[in-house]
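Support request, priority: normal
Reporter: lab tech (M.K.)
Component: structure prediction queue

Hi team, I submitted a job for DUF2892 domain-containing protein from Turicibacter bilis yesterday, and the status page still shows it as pending. I've pasted the exact input below so you can check whether something in the sequence is tripping the parser. The sequence length should be 98 residues. Please let me know if I need to resubmit or if it's stuck on your end.
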Amino acid sequence: MCVKNVGRMDAYVRISAGLMMVSLGIMKHKGWMAALGSMKVAEGITRYCPVLDALNLSTLSDEELLDEALGSCVIDIEEDDDDEFEELEHQCGCHHED
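Reply from support: The job had stalled in the queue. We restarted it manually and it finished. Here are the results:
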């Protein structure tokens, strides 16, 4: 399974540049440019780049790496007046034990 290795901003740039390459390739009858552009659009949408993967690199920010590591499990902590943790509520529905 492919793991995301393209950051959010990088993905937006890849999609925009890819769409521009596709349109220029179509206008100038350059099939190779349209093909490269479509690859960049696909990389931006899937947020996976095989070249970055082969070089063992990533453009994910620290926050995005943390989100990937933790998955969708987010803990909301409600505190009572004694500053002790009263309840741990998970948005993803999982249950963690201490």
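The CA atoms of residues 11 and 45 lie 7 Å apart. The first strand starts at residue 75 and ends at 79. Let us know if anything else looks off. Ticket resolved.
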